[in-house]
UniProtKB/TrEMBL annotation:
This protein's name: peptidylprolyl isomerase
UniProt keyword terms in alphabetical order: Isomerase, Repeat, Rotamase, TPR repeat
Domain PPIase FKBP-type: from-to ranges: 28-106
Organism encoding this protein: Rhodosorus marinus
TPR repeats: 199-232, 233-266
Length: 300
């Protein structure tokens, strides 16, 4: 069976035993599962002996973090085993070793998860997203990057639904009264605020993943920012640094040069460009020596 790491630090590793079908749970869906929890090969607890399914709402921090991450990745009917370690396991219960949790995702109630959004007006959804972003900032300052990422992602969920009604209609084009007076100026102002919060949370996610050493995710979220604001110096800096870590030196240099043009006072960018130029020159010298050796031009 294929093994997949669900977190940058491999704190949650998933192995699919039986594939499922259908849509994965949304951010605040209610899920129904059976599970068996093992540590050191011994069963600690299991729901298998009862006839009742275990259910909980995602995003409420009511279960072990690793279990929620595992369930979010599953489809209805799927059976998977997650190996949880570090911050994702059962430290609060005095268990400090890795544990294995086997989960069968029985069903998902997506509609219950949507009610949180649907009860809100567009302005209330934006306000909720902003609060999640601010809470993520607090966790970031405390160097709790995983918790910060969770809140930034929740903020993005609310932003996604700002202009969506219960029938899936875009409230910017449909005649829906929850847009206030529905005037073009009001909708445009709300769109601009949503865009600003999206850019901020995408940039913050890129920075969190940089702290976690996940360069692919850094590039992804930097690209999300640049799709909204092609002249965003922070996103260009984040992407340039990630590309440098990938060994894509010339692409990294282009990003950092553009970031420097947009923000010439940023000392970090200037310093990184200097280091990058040294890496590029060093690579070219190594390449030249290698070719010289191949054709007999190396030093004897």
């Amino acid at each position: 069976m294929e093994v997949e790491s669900l977190t940058p630090d491999a704190g949650v590793v998933k192995r699919v035993e039986v594939p499922g079908e259908g849509e994965k749970p949304s951010a605040h869906a209610r899920v129904y599962i059976h599970y068996t929890l093992r540590a050191g090969g011994k069963v600690l607890e299991s729901s298998r002996g009862s006839n009742e399914e275990i259910s909980f709402r995602l995003g409420r921090e009511k279960v072990v973090p690793g279990l929620e991450i595992l369930v979010r990745s599953m489809s209805p009917g799927e059976v998977a085993v997650g190996t949880l370690s570090g911050d994702y396991t059962l430290k609060s219960r005095g268990i400090n070793q890795p544990v294995d949790v086997e989960v069968r995702l029985i069903r998902v109630d997506q509609e219950e998860g949507k009610k949180d959004y649907l009860r809100m007006t567009p302005h209330e959804r934006l306000e909720a997203a902003t609060k999640y972003k601010e809470n993520g900032n607090k966790y970031f300052k405390e160097a709790k990057f995983k918790k910060a990422m969770t809140d930034y992602l929740r903020a993005q969920e609310y932003l996604h639904y700002v202009f969506v009604d219960e029938k899936g209609r875009d409230t910017r084009t449909a005649k829906v009264p929850e847009n206030g007076d529905g005037s073009a100026s009001e909708v445009q102002a709300l769109e601009e605020m949503v865009k600003m919060v999206k850019i901020s949370t995408f940039n913050n996610l890129a920075l969190c993943y940089a702290k976690e050493g996940s360069n692919k995710k850094v590039v992804k979220y930097a690209n999300d920012v640049l799709a909204l604001d092609p002249r965003n110096a922070k996103a260009l800096y984040h992407r340039g640094m990630a590309r440098s870590n990938f060994g894509e030196m010339e692409e990294a240099k282009l990003d950092l040069q553009q970031a420097q043009k947009l923000n010439p006072e940023d000392v970090r960018v200037k310093n990184e460009l200097g280091l990058l130029d040294k890496k590029i020159m060093s690579g070219k010298r190594r390449e030249k020596r290698a070719y010289g050796a191949m054709f007999g031009f190396g030093s004897s």
